[in-house]
């Protein structure tokens, strides 16, 4: 069940990032982030009665901290998506966001099975392969990669901080995360005098990105509560596969052979980790 939830999370995250990237080409980054986060907050508040948990100061505090880390990553990520090639930015962010929780999990005593560790290495290699794009401008790519690395650190922090919340808290940490992220980005928009009005025809795309992003967060939290952070995070990091496929299908971005090989490695990684799980 953990592998299924984490893999589904990766697919939904990748789809959400694709919509987020499209939205930032039509609207200001802060507008996209605030409005999408509000859409996600509405979804999580609606899901609370269906997946109840125990609200506590500790749960909300970890959620608030996770929200600040995730919001920082999201602003940087969407900005990079809007100014560079999507098939470069998404994988670079992914491998960074995966590596941090893996290191944290192993450092705090998690010991995955041997074949699961092989799957982790294969998965990290997969996101490196799909990030290869020789057609990208070198100067622009360097700037985008730096932003993507910083975004990945923000997302990795989000995963780690959410994992610190009590398991009995249910979805409440996500409520705290959304409250802090919306507040932080809204204050940033006010401080920089940026309008939050979406571009023409982009509101429905922004809402879709926010709803899908929160749905992925829910899947991540459920997977992490039932599995090892070092495995769940690396499975979730495979989300660029769906982003790449959508970018190719909708935007016509071409995939190199090495990127196709990366997708194949990602599928192999999921299989290895799934086989290594206790039944």
Shape: globular
Order of helices and strands: HHHHHHHHHHH
Rg for CA atoms: 18 Å
Main sheet: strands, sense, barrel: none
Overall pLDDT level: 83
**Count of DSSP strands:** 0
Poorly predicted runs: none
Tally of helical segments: 11
Instruction: Please indicate the percent range of residues in DSSP E strands (runs of 2 or more).
Output: under 5%
- Percent helix: over 70%
Structural class of the helices, strands and pairings?
mainly alpha
Distance between the termini: 10 Å
Outline of this structure?
This protein is an all-alpha fold and 279 residues long. Helix content is 77%, strand content 0%. The protein has helices spanning 2-24, 29-47, 57-83, 86-107, 114-130, 138-163, 172-191, 203-224, 229-236, 240-251, 257-276.
Tell me what you see in this structure.
- With 279 residues, this protein is mainly α.
- The longest helix has 27 residues.
- It is globular, with a radius of gyration of 18 Å.
- The termini are close together.
